[in-house]
Structures are given as C-alpha cells and as structure tokens.
Amino acid sequence: MAPIILSAPLEGWVTPLEAVPDPVFAGRMLGDGIAIDPTGDTLHAPCAGRIVGLQSTGHAITIEAENGAQILMHLGIDTVALDGRGFTPLVAIGDEVASGDPLIRFDLDLLVQSARAVITPILLTETGGTVVSDIAAPGPIAVGAALMTLQPTATSAGAPQEPHDASGISATRTLRIDLPHGLHARPAARIAALARERDATVTIAKGDRSASARSPTGMLGLGIAFGDEITLSAHGDDADQALDALVALIAGGMGEAPATPAIPSPSLPPSPVPDDLAPGTIGGVCAAPGLAVGPVRQHRTADIEVPVHGRGIAVETQAFDDAHSQLVQDVARQALAARGPAQAILQAHAALLDDPELREATNAGIARGESAGHAWRMAIRQQADILRTGGNARLAERADDLLDLERRLLALLVGAAPTADLYAVGTILIADDLLPSDLIAIPEGLAALCIARGGPTSHVAILAASMGLPTLVAAGAAVLDIAEGTRIIVDANKGRLLSHPTADEIAVAEAQQAATARRRADALATAAAACHTADGTRIEVFANLGAASEAAPAVANGAEGCGLLRTEFLFLDRDTAPSVAEQHRDYQAIADGLAGRPLIVRLLDIGGDKPAPYLTMAAEENPALGLRGIRVGLAHPALLEDQLRAILQVQPIGQCRIMLPMVARVEELRDVRRVLDRLSAEMEIATPIALGIMVETPAAAVTADTLAREADFLSIGTNDLTQYTLAMDRANPAVASALDGLHPAVLRLIAQTCRGGATHGRWTGVCGSLASDPLAVPILLGLGVTELSAAPAMVPTIKARVREISLEACRAHAQAVLACASAPEVRTLARRFASEETPA
Fold first, then answer.
1. Does residue 44 carry a catalytic annotation?
2. What is the pTM of this model?
3. Given 47, 531, 754, 767, the catalytic residue
4. Is 459 an annotated catalytic residue?
C-alpha cells in the first residue's frame, strides 16, 4: 500500500503530543500522533475515508483511511463535560468523506471559556501495520497543509492487533470514595506502596478512565473526588488478596478525616483577604501567624535550561538513571535528618520519585530523541498541569511538589546542584512562588515570608508554620514590585503587608516585637522552675508529645513531664501493627528523654478520623460516633494487650501512667483495669500503675464523679469535648470555624468534671488545645484544673502566665465567664482579665 499523507484538519498551532495536558493523550495511551491548538471553528477530514466513530456529544470523531488505519480527532480536553454544547457534527457514522471535507463545527469561544483546554490531539489509533513519520514541526499551520505521514510496513496487510483480553482479570471491586479531599497525594502514595507489594496488576477506574494503582500521579490524574465511585480490577496470582487489602486501606480512610464536601455558609464564610486596605497596604492570606519588620529580599528562580534533543538513547538514559538515583538518595538522606512536617513532605517526594509512570514517560521521551532533562520536564509538567486544572485547590498546591522534583533532578543533570541562598538575619523573603526544598534549604534567621501565589494548605505554608515563621500567601503580584532592601512590615495575624510603612508604624511594630521577645525570654529563663500561681498554688505544666525526638526539646522548654503521649505515631502509616518490642523501644526512648519525669501514655486512639489499614473495621455511617478510641482496643484484645505489655516494660516501673481515650462508660474503664491487673501479675509487677481517663465525651464529663471512683486521674481533651458538646465536626470547614472551646457549654462540662474528680480526691488536667491558650488558662485554673499539658513550644509561656495570676482571681473570673451566653462574650471577658491581671 502507498503511504497516506494526513493533512491538517484544523487551522491553528502544531504542538507535540506530550504538551497535551492529559496523560491519556500525552502518554500516547490511545496512539501516536500530534496535536493542534485551534484558531478556527471547523474540523476537517485529514484524508479520504469513512466515518467509523462519532461521540454523541460531538466532541470526538474517528475516520478510517483507505489502508484501514483509524485516525481519532478529539476536540479539546474534558469537553465531554459540555454535553454537546458548542459542537455541531456535519457527518454521521458510515459517511464517506474526501480529504478536506468539513466534519464538525464548534464554538471556539465557548470551548475556551468552558473546557480545560481546546488543544486537539490527532491520533493514529489502529495502525494496521502503518507507522507515523514526517510529523510537522511545531508552529502555525493552515487547513490542508501536510501534517504527518502514515507509512505502511511489511505487515501492513495484516489486521490490526486485537485489544488486550480482559478475561485475564480475575477480580474486581467497586467502592465509593469517602476521603474528604478525594484521592490526593498522600493517599495515592499509600495505595501505590501497597499495590507494589502485591503479585498482581491492579488498575483503578473512574468512569471510562483508568490508571495503574502503582502510579500516584496516574491516580491523581483521574481526579477522583469525594463521593465518586471507582472500580478496582486485578489479575495475577495475588489478585483477590491485593484487592482486599486495597479496599480495606481505602475504605478505612487512610487517616483522612471523614467529611462531606464543604458547602460555603453565609454565616461562616472563609476568612477573606482584607478589603479595607489603606494605601501602601497589601492583603494576603495568613499561613503562619506573627509580626515582622525587616528589609525585603526578592527570591527569584529561573528555569534550568536543558536541550530539547538528546545525544543518543543510551547516553541520555544513563544520565537520567544516574541523576534519578542521586536524587532518591538525597531525598532519603534529608528525610532521615528532618522532623515533623519537613520529614512528611520529603517522604511524599520520595513516593513521587518512585512513581513508575513518571520514569516510563521520561524514558519514552528519551526514546523519541529528547534529552533526559527535556523528557523529565515534560513528564513532570503534564502531571502538574492536570493537578492545577482539575478544580481541586489542595491538589493544585501539590503540583509544586512535582515542580520541586523537576528542578532538583535537572540541577543534577546539568551539574549545578542547588545550594542554599544566604539571607541576612531579619530578612523578609518575598517570592512569586516557593518550593518546599527552597524553604528546607534556607538557613534559620528569616523574619517573615510573603508569597505572591500559593495557598494556606501548601507544603511551603505547612513548613513555615512548623518553623514559627510569619507567612502570608496569595498576596498577589504587587509584592513582587517591592524594591530590594525596602523596610516593610508583615502582620500575618491580620493578613496584611505594609509596603511603605511610616516611621511611627515601624516604631509601633518594633515595640510589639520587643515586648513579645522580652516576654518569651523571661518565660524561657524561668521555665525550668516548678510552677505556682501568684498566691502559691502548685500547677503542673506538662507537654503533649508524639515522638521520641520531641521529649528532650520539651524538657528544655520547662515541661515537667508528658501529659499526653499520642501513640498513634507507631500504629498509622503502616500495613501491620507494631510488635511489643518495637513499641517498648519507642516508649523507653521517650521516658529516657524525659529523664524520670512522668509520662502519661494514651492508649491507641484510632478509628474515626484515624483508621489503621491492618484492622478490619466495617464502614460506618458516622465514624466519629462509632468504633474509635478505647472501643477499638476492647474490640481487638491482642492489640490492647500488646500495648499494655510494652508500657509495663518501661523502666523505671511507675514512670508511665496509662490513659484511656474516648471513655463514655465506666464498664470500659473496668475492662481495661482487669487486663492491666492480669498482665501486671503475669509480669510480676507489684508497683501500682496509675490508670486514668480522657474526658472527651459529654457522658464522661457529667458522670465524672462515678468514673473518678475507679480512675486514678482525669484529663480533659478539649478538642473532642468541644466538637461533641457543640455537635460540630472539627473536620468540616462549613462549621469548624464556629468551634470554640471557650463556649459556656464546654466550660460548664469542664467545671463538672473537676467537681466530680475532687469528690474522690482525683486531680483533673487538660491536654487539649485550651491548655496552650493563655486566654483560657486562668479560666481553667478557676474551674479546678491543676495540670496543664500544652504544646512543647508553649510551655514557657503557659508557666509564665500561671505565675502572674492568683487562684482567687481565677476563681472569680471563672464564675463570671460561666454566666456568659456565648464564646465571644467569654473571650471579651478573658481579654479584659488578661489586661488587668498581667503585670506591665
């Protein structure tokens, strides 16, 4: 057969297929070809043939050429969602057409406004033995100009290859996605990790699109949102087991708080950028609170230049493999040395680097003659574009993680590994955008951060908050015009930047900073001393901990012990429960870090918004009110016994106290007490081990006197107590902003808990967020709380606040706020008390 020259079916701009913002087309999953970004309004036949396919919505059409080759033309990306609007087919299936005949008219303006992209792939879907050659170079093209050639091969007379036989699939499952933010980066990485452990090929499908379960970016590209139904299909020796494990992982929630999609509420709107800005004031969104004054330094990063064409497949493949391997090692090394959010972000980057589809897309580009750098850039950016245009703000922010990896690998390829920029201490850094590795590499000493783009849930924002760095995001392009060295004020608390502050404004801001710094220094200087109120009442101030690495810094901040050890860090983000030895090792390390100070270990608190993939837990209509907290331990006795054995092995015996989460009935306390007594006897432990409860339910608060007969202490978890008392889910943005632990209803339950505990001589503490709120502390002490367990960084401030106030004044203050009708009224009184009772 003779070659067939396809002519351009559209007027527009020829674009490589890999530039199409959709992996199905860019990855050539539907076939090889090219794309045109149209400037006209009519699609024409690229050759003579017969119409063999036409979508009912009119957005896609397939023509079969004389040699049997089939050419698919897909007008725009995600245009199926228009449901036919803007498309007028001029032919029908079965029609014979000549080259250049009009096929479909379309409303280009409507497509530009409504579709994700109007770029149109032209693909050879069934070759019949032909190959694509002589592809037009990128640039403008007119209808009828030569576009590409279908060149027959020796096997051209054969029939097109049949599609894959689906009979090989041996198992399928269908389930609804209840993850509140859909399938974003973190759950996608966990699904991929589990899929790679199984001897099965697994795909995830949403509608008529699917992706490998081993590819995080492929799954993200499906745009799976809350409420979507997906189908898991598998074939291979481990097909059923693989699907069972994946269904359990996904249905279990993977640590994502269950919630319904946020519906904006007129009475509870999200915090807007201030619209009452004075001249010279720029509004932004607070990502990390604080106030800073300092000179501006603009952070500008240019794209790393890489050649388009390679030096040969073998050379480019080796260069890519070497750079990729080096980056994997670099990220792993950084993750080991990092802590908290930085470590979690680097671990997410490691999962993305392990994505086989990113590597395969890069290798495919190299095979087409591209350089390793160009192929990697195109593979990364097509995925980043999908995330940015998918309509999900959180996924759009995750695109920065992909671009971060792009830049880091390209720097290794060209031999210019990035080094940390040096900024003078006190600098306010301004950037159009900032990548996580930028902030991780910046030395300490910045005064504040202001980003023109970004969002408050981006990884950069999370990092900045963990560093205590005042940060504004989404501040707009105006911040990029502020001259280097200009002295400005960033008030992240109010979401504002003063670009040309007056001398008086700077003086006021600096005075506020100095006062804050003095208070912090004074608090640190006396943090190690035992804490008493101004009239001599002893108040213990402990720290909440979640890992062994936090113990020593907490002690350095003056913590007198740990009032809440969250043991979930050992149980989540893994596929099997930790052994007794593994748990004991970690608990002992924390006890050692506290140097003999008390360690209150909360038993495993999972379920609800913190599921574990290895526990079989049926889907629940309302997980927050279902199998969670101590109920999980009692439902899985082996898990409970293993944890108790590990705690009982910690030396010295008695340093650890045990606390039960989510108690609502005295029977739960009695059941655990029996297990604890039995294990103590088996292990020949004669020292009594204190067993207390967390008061997180209204039931526990109102029956505190009953529970205190059998509990050794009570500790109030104000976060859960508040949401259950006010019937507001703290994971639901539509109502979460109204949650306030200083609501009079919550405070009355705290008062009732303290009275109930005192009836039997039991102490009552607070380990929720109110213990870290200086406004709340006097109220808590006045209600009868004698132990506070705060965030480690807040311990010096809380101890200093306790020393400033008398218990007598606190009691009078507490009685006054209990008479208030609302949380705002309570806070007004609390601020007044703070101004009256705080020394000048």
1. no
2. 0.53
3. 767
4. yes
